[in-house]
Specification:
It is a single chain. The protein is built from 8 helices and 17 strands. With 330 residues, the protein is α+β, with helices and mostly antiparallel strands. The strands form 3 sheets. Strands 4-3-2-1-5-6-7-8 form an 8-stranded antiparallel sheet. Strand 14 and strand 15 form a beta hairpin.
Amino acid sequence: MFTTATLSATHSLQYIITAVTPGINSPEYIEVGLLDGEPFVYYDSKIKKMIPKTEWIKNNEDEDCWDAETQTNQATQEIFKANIATAMSRFNQTEGVHTVQAMYGCELHDDGTTTGYRQEGYDGEDFISLDLNTLTWTAANDKAVITKNKWEATGTNAHQWKGYLENTCIEWLQKYVSYSRDTLERKDPPEVTLFQKDSSSPVVCHATGFFPKGVAIFWQKNGEDLRENVELTETLPNQDGTYQKRSILTVSPEDLNKNKYSCVVHHSGLEKDLVLAFQPVNVGAILAVLLLVLVGCAAFLIWRKKKKNGKGCRRQMGSPNEQLQWGLVY
């Protein structure tokens, strides 16, 4: 009855790198790897090592992998440090806090098609990006044209990135989805509670404990979909790997008493849409939903342990010499 794009079977693998000028109370270099939008590996210049963020990656890679990833990031960190200095010089900047960010990755859609991207930014603005169709680099401003010309001098780095994004990245995406299948492809239905602080307060429909992230929450008035005076909050993660979301309906006490209001929740973990009719103020329900939130924030899901199989390690950019060829240096 109700579908949204967020319920698609698309899988994604993405890496985000952030480098910042020294002197502030944060790491000067951070890399985060995300599978389907959820962090699974992490490195920063303070801890100086790549670490797993999920049990499924920890149980499928050995120490050699983490050592190799650590070495790669340590080398890349120096290149990004130099890139900040280069960008500052081009923009005639001698002080202040400045950042260089890179984002690249690939997506595997449910129809079998794939997409990939590679882009960089400076101080929160676009700087340069790869056009996979033309194998050229698009400069977002005149300062980035120097980098564009440098990276296009031989054309080698664009072809290398195309090979990585359309082949290697997809292969690792499929491996990671396989590793994490029990986690990512499980379907946990939401627990839904309706509550109201008092008779003059908005009515809240709170869903929690669901996975995957895609969920639709909407209201009905006397059996008809209601779109007015409804606020839908952001979907938030629980510490156990599930999610929570709420929809808030603002309605007068008189209208509540004269009409039948229901909250409808659509999720892939439900056999059919869950319809919960509003009932008069119930203090017990308020306490129950607060307890659910606390449990969601405090509990940890214990994943089934898997034997480490040493199936290899992602090497996204290779050695420092290879990185020079891949077009990482401004």
